[in-house]
Design brief:
This protein has 9 helices and 10 strands. By secondary structure, it is of the alpha/beta class. The protein has a domain at about 5-215: Aldolase class I (TIM Barrel), CATH 3.20.20. Helix 3 (about 90-105) packs across helix 4 (about 120-130) and helix 8 (about 225-235) runs parallel beside helix 9 (about 270-280). The longest helix is centred in the middle third of the chain and has 16 residues, at about 180-195. Bound molecules: iron/sulfur cluster.
Length: about 300
Amino acid sequence: MNDFLFPEYDNCKLCPRDCGVNRNKGEYGFCHVDNRLAIGSICRHTGEEPPISGQYGIANVFFMHCTLQCQFCQNRQISLNKVDLKPYIFEVQEVVEKLMLLLDQGCKAVGFVSPTHYIPHVKRIISELRSNGYYPSFVYNTSGYENVEQLKELEGYIDVWLPDFKYSDNVLARRLSKASNYPEVAVTAIKEMYRQKGSTLIVDELAQAVSGLIIRHLVLPGYIENSMKVLETIADEISTNVHISLMSQYNPQFYSHTDLALQRPLYLQEYEVVVQHFYELGFHKGWIQEMESHQTYNPDFEQKHPFEKT
Ligand code: SF4
């Protein structure tokens, strides 16, 4: 059952796929989601960057399916657009209640993970929490494949933007994520986030982010040039004062195709080259990861369903 009807789903152009399908009538676009709210997990998460997780963890909402289909996605159990949504459908109120519970238990922030194709639902969840007297920081954790118009509409809702910037290479973006226009789209989207928040990350007394922008980049084995150009693009077109999370956690176990480079973990030497370039370009704020990160960052959404529905 769908507890709210959102006109934005009538002619869906929420993301740059621009499908124009009527999700309210059960039509499917690229993301293969109709107008129902499908969530893979709601849980307290402690493995994000320190100002995102905070001392008590962030209450993360992992949405089903994705507007990208990255071949190496570590969340593929829920992000593949062919996963059956039926067991994951929930009403807004159920989600709000679960989040209020996590906030009561100490979480200071709510994170929306891969939320792009559910933006109307995201706004509703935020409004419902606020009307219940809950004012956590709201973190928008996205692939970076976003429409600027939607980001502008989210300005009063989102406190911390947490976008990926995955590719500077259009051919790689098409091959690995079915989105050849990803580089242009992502830089335009991140520029809008930067317009809203600038380069200052505001934190509370416990050093948890309450406002700002953090750009994530996952370094892929064999594609160091791509990573270097991503950093150069941020330096040239956005700022070297932004916070960058340079991730080494790529895990080949999630890659099921024939790209030879992606069948192995990232080499330490590759990561070091990118880190060195980070400093050479003048970046000075952010996080780098330990090389064993790929062994500890693997969520398993099949271990336990987020809600034990009765
Ligand atoms: S949100 Fe889904 S249906 Fe809407 S434009 Fe994007 S991929 Fe297409």
